[in-house]
Design a protein that fits this description.
Oligomer: single chain
Largest sheet: 2 strands, antiparallel
Strand order of the largest sheet: 1-2
């Protein structure tokens, strides 16, 4: 049994049950935030732990949800802790992993080298400069890093291929969509070079992409670009049918030559679209 956030309903958020049990044993109770939505949505005490096996009781999620509803929303962090991250001070220094958006190579980054005021640039052996935004630090105390899931999201957003032009409100909508398609296809193609044969096969199975898209669950980073590309294809078909999809795909191929084949494969089966 793993806790489900009563605020965002994320199943199995990043949590170490044994560490929570230790805090409850020492302090009697504790308030923790969700690793996905970062809201203070968990209130633990001894009643949520089995006295025999010291694991969470079977109906823990029902109890967590009832407590959250009775509290009418988020809990107040424990006294003396940061209102954002819930920690009483600076944790021991750690390193965290990031992946190069161009080649997929992994890097371990020491928090000591990450700026709290501006972006940090990390060179990859492929020549790409990975951008780490200052937002990876807790916005409340700036003493601790945010959770790994949030760090991954922030780094991914900061390194999106179309980030610069995406903020250009004067760019025509068709060009913005095409540049987004080209960026996702390029990122997916680069990432595929580091994947297993099974992962590469799943990347192009449109039924699997739709399952991930409509299941509303957590999507692994290695396939997220193509799930987003598939989602964009569905939206284009809804808004303008095959004509709009063809126009965007053609424009994307002009922006980033070589992306059309992957776009055609990922959009297979949307309306009358065929590979």
């Amino acid at each position: 049994m793993h806790p489900i956030c009563p605020a965002c309903f994320t199943a199995r958020p990043e949590v170490v049950v044994s560490s929570i049990a230790a805090r409850v044993e020492n302090d009697g109770a504790c308030v923790l935030s969700c690793s996905a939505c970062e809201r203070h949505s968990f209130h633990y005490d001894a009643a949520l732990f089995c006295s025999v096996c010291e694991w969470l009781v079977p109906d823990v999620n029902d109890r967590l949800a009832e407590r959250y509803a009775a509290n009418e929303g988020d809990y107040v962090p424990d006294p003396g802790t940061c209102p954002e991250c819930g920690r009483p001070g600076a944790d021991p220094e750690v390193s965290f992993p990031i992946a190069c958006p161009r080649c997929g190579a992994g890097h371990m980054i020491s928090q000591r080298g990450v700026s709290k005021k501006g972006t940090t640039s990390v060179p990859c052996t492929c020549g790409y400069a990975i951008t780490i935004p200052a937002d990876v630090w807790c916005p409340g105390c700036q003493l601790n890093l945010r959770n790994l899931r949030k760090i991954s999201e922030l780094v991914k957003t900061a390194n999106e291929p179309d980030r610069r032009v995406g903020d250009n409100v004067k760019e025509p909508p068709l060009d913005r969509a095409a540049r987004r398609v080209a960026g996702l296809a390029t990122a997916g193609e680069r990432r595929s070079r580091t994947l297993t044969a099974t992962q590469r096969r799943l990347m192009l199975e449109v039924d699997h992409l739709d399952l991930l898209l409509f299941n509303q669950g957590q999507i692994s980073d290695w396939i997220l670009d193509l799930v987003e590309l598939r989602s964009l294809g569905h939206r284009l078909h809804r808004d303008g049918g095959m004509e709009l999809m063809s126009a965007v795909a053609s424009r994307a191929a002009a922006i980033e030559p070589g992306t059309l084949r992957l776009v055609e494969a990922v959009w297979h089966g949307i309306g009358d679209w065929r590979r």
